[in-house]
Design brief:
The structure holds two protein chains of two kinds.
Chain A: H1 2-18, E1 30-32, E2 43-45, H2 54-75, H3 82-100, H4 112-134, H5 140-168, H6 171-186, H7 188-191, H8 193-198, H9 203-212, H10 214-221, H11 230-235, H12 248-268
Antiparallel strand pairs in A: 1-2
Chain B: H1 2-16, H2 23-27, H3 30-50, H4 61-72, H5 84-94, H6 110-123, H7 130-143, H8 171-183, H9 191-201, H10 237-249, H11 257-268, H12 284-298, E1 302-304, E2 310-312, H13 313-324, H14 344-359
Antiparallel strand pairs in B: 1-2
Helix pairs in contact in B: 3-13, 3-14, 4-5, 4-6, 4-14, 6-7, 6-8, 8-10, 10-11, 10-12, 12-14, 13-14
The chains are: A mainly alpha, B mainly alpha.
Chain lengths: 276, 360
């Protein structure tokens, strides 16, 4: 029932995005984003409505459906540790949340409240996905930790996507640049591993590379030693070096600071730099 | 003059008294034994210099436990009565006892740390630590992967033990846990042993006792079911010695075909110039420690290789380890930092443990 409802909602939302009331393909309907005092109001898309309340709920439902599909695809069959399963659902929820987030064209000068509401919705969606699929095996603290992690990363990456989109003058390029950056930092322990081994990198460097990965952040939020998990152990020598994961509170503070800074930059970006 | 005659008489008397336990060590060339003891002294001296104020080495329970073991098992027979260099590391280890019985400063290597700490605490032979030992044993037993974690008996992970923060087991952590449970006389009737043997057998390249499809038939062991860090699922020295120790410590007879197959692999690949089967020098010092432990557990000082040549493994190992020691007393793997072998404290402690076993 859960999956059916999620998918139906998702399909309806995507349909609403593509077609207007007459059934013709068109640009999505627009309404008004709350703007800073003195700044001109700008249009935005309905399906990707950046407002709080119902729009955030719709975002969360869409995120649930997308996230579940992606995570189930990743996990396939065979026993998977509960923490790994939860991490996969959290990661999928995050990707889905970024996919449905409003882009640089839709939100010209974002306000703090809607951005935070959307992030909380993404976190709540991640929490629901985990509980629906993994249950409470991890305990409430770890589920809440993962939900918080998803919320913080959603805020940071959504803000980064909009800022970069404005700067490069293209929403797709902005998404691509941020996506590439996240993918590179997220998998750095894998692709940088051989170089770290060859250079006999110090523990400080290894720790920094491990800490920079958003995957590490989500893993520490649920207490999962993912680098010793079979796939990572087979594909990266990092787990055989001496390293330490960052403290959850340090990572949370770091990502939150970056996210808020990017949000502020997005709000105060001069018009001449807004090319999107 | 009279004293000299008494001394001579005592020496003759001593020569006539049988002492099988020390026979192997005493049969060793005296000069070589002195070299080994000198190397042990150098290593222990280095460790005393690098010990932190809190008694730890490398701020790690695992490294501290192995270093403490090196002191306690040395020919000097250090004990808690010898002073702070023994009592402080012990206090550091005991200071990291967790509510669940584990002993670790981190959640990453919790099983590894608990097993090494258990061995070191047991080496103190102090009955005061019985409660800590019992709780740590129970932690390791609970930590073993079984149906409770959703892995049925036909799953390759069943019976295994991993580093601790995840649920991916491997033979290296398994052998350490088995060694710790054996050293602390864990309940021999516990199902932990049978489950452990199942996992150990699934790491052996012996299709008659390994139900995994990849299993070959050379008798050696690989790191975990279906994977070797040196490529494919090939057998290599460090894990074959770890596998042999696991089998013997879990109570398998020396005549069991699994033990015979592992020992035959060792005979066919006998060398101390490299970790046989490994792609590079990574894990070389781990190999030396596992070599010393498995050969000591097997109980024969001579190894006749498949080409018919007889080797005295104790003498060969001592010569090799002594030749690798730095003039300042330490050992470290200069060619690979993997598995912390670049850490002088860890590698030095391991080499002293190996020398202690070879000279015992």
């Amino acid at each position: 029932v859960f999956r059916f409802l999620g998918w139906t909602t998702f399909a309806r939302l995507r349909y609403a995005c593509r077609r207007d009331d007459t059934g013709r393909r068109s640009e999505p309907p627009a309404d008004r984003e709350r703007s800073p005092v003195g700044a001109p109001a700008t249009p935005r898309r309905v399906n990707a409505s950046p407002g709080s309340g119902p729009a955030a709920v719709l975002d969360a439902i869409t995120t649930l459906a997308l996230g579940e599909l992606a995570a189930l695809g990743i996990l396939r069959d065979g026993p998977v540790p509960a923490k790994a399963e939860a991490l996969a659902f959290a990661g999928a929820a995050l990707i889905a949340a970024l996919w449905v987030a409003p882009d640089a064209r839709a939100v010209r000068r974002p306000s703090l409240a809607p951005a935070v509401a959307r992030s909380i919705a993404a976190g709540a969606a991640a929490g629901l996905l985990i509980v629906a699929n993994v249950g409470w095996q991890l305990g409430p603290a770890r589920v809440l930790g993962l939900a918080l992690g998803v919320a913080v990363l959603a805020l940071t990456f959504a803000s980064a996507t909009r800022v970069v989109g404005h700067l490069v003058g293209s929403v797709p390029r902005g998404r691509l640049a941020v996506g590439l950056g996240v993918a590179l930092t997220g998998t750095a322990p894998v692709w940088l591993g051989p170089a770290l081994e060859r250079l006999e990198a110090s523990q400080t460097i290894v720790d920094a590379i491990v800490a920079a990965s958003p995957l590490t952040y989500l893993a520490v939020m649920c207490g999962y030693d993912y680098l010793h998990q079979q796939w990572f152990y087979v594909h990266s020598p990092v787990a055989s070096f001496r390293f330490a994961y960052p403290a959850p509170i340090t990572s949370t503070a770091g990502y939150l600071a970056i996210g808020l800074a990017l949000l502020s930059a997005d709000r105060h970006l001069p018009e001449r730099w807004r090319k999107a | 003059m009279r004293c000299r005659w008494i001394a001579l008489g005592l020496s003759l008397l001593a020569a006539l008294v049988p002492f099988p336990a020390g026979a192997a060590a005493d049969a060793m060339d005296a000069a070589l034994r002195d070299k080994a003891r000198h190397a042990v002294d150098g290593g222990l001296h280095f460790l005393r210099e690098t010990q932190a104020e809190d008694g730890s080495w490398s701020k790690s329970v695992g490294v501290t436990a192995i270093a403490l073991r090196a002191f306690l098992e040395s020919y000097r027979h250090y004990s808690e009565a010898d002073g702070a260099f023994v009592t402080r590391p012990l206090a550091f280890i005991l200071g990291h006892v967790q509510k669940d019985g584990s002993i670790s400063e981190t959640k990453q290597n919790v099983a590894y740390n608990t097993a090494t700490a258990l061995i070191a605490i047991q080496a103190t032979a102090n009955p005061k630590h019985a409660g800590v030992i019992r709780d740590a044993q129970q932690f390791l037993a609970r930590h073993q992967i079984d149906e409770g974690e959703g892995y049925p008996p036909d799953h390759a992970y069943h019976g295994g033990i991993g580093y601790g923060g995840d649920e991916r087991p491997d033979l290296s952590n398994e052998y350490l846990a088995i060694e710790a449970l054996r050293a602390t006389s864990f309940d021999p009737k516990s199902p932990v042993w049978a489950r452990a043997l199942k996992f150990v057998s699934r790491c052996q390249n012996r299709s008659e006792s390994n139900d995994q499809s990849w299993a070959a038939n050379d008798g050696g062991f690989t790191y975990m079911p279906g994977y070797s860090p040196h490529g494919g699922t090939g057998s290599y020295g460090a894990m074959t010695h770890a596998g042999l120790i696991s089998l013997l410590f879990a109570g398998v007879d020396k005549n069991d075909p699994r033990v015979r197959a592992a020992y035959d692999w060792i005979r066919a690949h006998y060398t101390l110039e490299e970790n046989p089967g490994a792609a590079d020098k990574s894990g070389l010092y781990y190999y030396y420690t596992a070599f010393a432990q498995s050969m000591a557990a097997y109980g024969s000082s001579k190894v006749t290789t498949t080409d018919g040549v007889e080797h005295d493994w104790r003498q060969d190992l001592i010569r090799k380890i002594v030749s690798l020691q730095d003039k300042d007393g330490w050992w470290a793997n200069a060619e690979s930092p993997r598995w912390w072998e670049g850490d002088k404290n860890l590698t030095t402690a391991r080499m002293v443990v190996a020398l202690n076993l070879a000279t015992r």
